[in-house]
Structure formats: C-alpha cells, structure tokens
Amino acid sequence: MDSLWKLTYLFEPAPLTLMLTAVAVTYASALRALNYGKEMERNRDFSEASITLDRSQALMIPLMSSGSLLLMFYLFSSVSQILTAFTAVASVSALFFCFAPYVTYFNSKFGLVDPFVSRCCSKSFTRGQALLVLLCTATVSAWLISGHWVLNNMLGISICIAFVSHVRLPNIKICALLLCCLFVYDIFWVFFSERFFGANVMLSVATQQASNPVHTVANSLSLPGLQLITKKLELPVKIVFPRNLLGGIVPGSQASDFMMLGLGDMV
Known about the structure:
The protein is mainly alpha-helical. The chain has 9 helices and 8 strands.
C-alpha cells in the first residue's frame, strides 16, 4: 500500500509537467515529420532529403551512441566547449526548421508579400525567413548567456523534432530492431555501466555541465557584464524541470534540483 501511495508523486507539478511535455513533443515530432514528408513530395525538393535507415545503420546507432557516451564520460571537460559551440549552431538550424512553416502560414493567411532577399547554400531566403534566422540566433544567444532551463528545453525540443523529421525508418522490422537495440543500450548504460567503469556513465554524462565558450571569450577580453554570463551550461540533450516547479529555480542551480528526461527517450 505504501508503494502505491508513493506513486502519487507522479501527480505533483514537476513530474506531471515532464510527462505531459514528453507526450506533447512526441506528438509534435510525428506531426512535423508527416508534414515535412508531404512538403518535400509536393515541392519535389529533395535537397534536404531525409535519411532512411537500413538494418546495418540501425545496428550502428547504439554502438555509435555508446562510443559517444564513453567519449563524453572520459573527455567531457576537454571537449565541452566544442560541443557547446556545435550545439548552438545545430539549435539555430533546428529552431528555424520548427518555426519556418508558421512564417509561411502567417504570410498566406494574411496575404503578405514575402520577397526573396538573399541566397545562401543553394537556397533562397525570403525576408520573413531571414528575420526568423535572426530571432532563432537571438534565442540561442540568450541561452548561451543565461543558461535558463526554459530556453534549454526549447532548444532540446526543437532538436528532437528536427531529428525525427529527417530520420526515417522504412519498415516495422527495422523499427523493432532499432528499438530492441536501444532498449539494451539504455539498460546497460543506466544499470550496469557502474560495474565496468566505476560510475554510472549515463547519469554522469547527463548531469555534467559544459563550459560556456561565451564566458571564456568574455573573460579573456575583460568585457563588461561578465557577471551576467553563466560559466556552465546544461546542454539541450534533455528536457529539465525544477523539482520545485511552482517556486522556480534560478539559473546555475545544481542538477539535483531538476527532474530530467533525455531526448532519446522521447525520440
């Protein structure tokens, strides 16, 4: 009876919000992937063709993920700034991918003219899309400066949606194979990695904070406002919510003050 009573914890604000967010992100990812596929077929634009996994690639994903996990476990402090810079660029692209359809819908809804203003990487950008790129860049910049968990979640969700939209599984056999491999991957690294590596590899990597390259540059140049830039960042590879959700938590708090769910668990 006591065990059942403990389950009421799931209905507290933070766990409930985490679960509802995971369900909403899963649904939004599937919907965006479906619309993206239809969009590519309608426009016959295959310059951003989706990646269709075959059996060997499905088997390689858990192996490559394991290698990346070990790399971050042993060398995270050495490569954290590179990872942060790469994540920032990927986040701008993911945010743009998620919100670009709304720019098109808004223009068509109100009959607005959206002229082309530039051409970059064999693609033409309209004025609305250029403004969206600036807005996405500003959002990522705000995350780099503040490290706020809300911005972290926004970037993580956009990366999740973009990944699901661009990676396709051609049939149920490959889907089942991939899910089985990822199930074994999760079980090993969460529950058995401590026996082999002396620590819970998955938990260690998930709770590590990356060095902020913006703070490093600002500190080396003695720029004003250095105290406003966070030294450490939670990378948007997971969604996080403060355990005391209604009370709120300031940026820079300990990882133990947050509940978290990896993007891979939603994908």
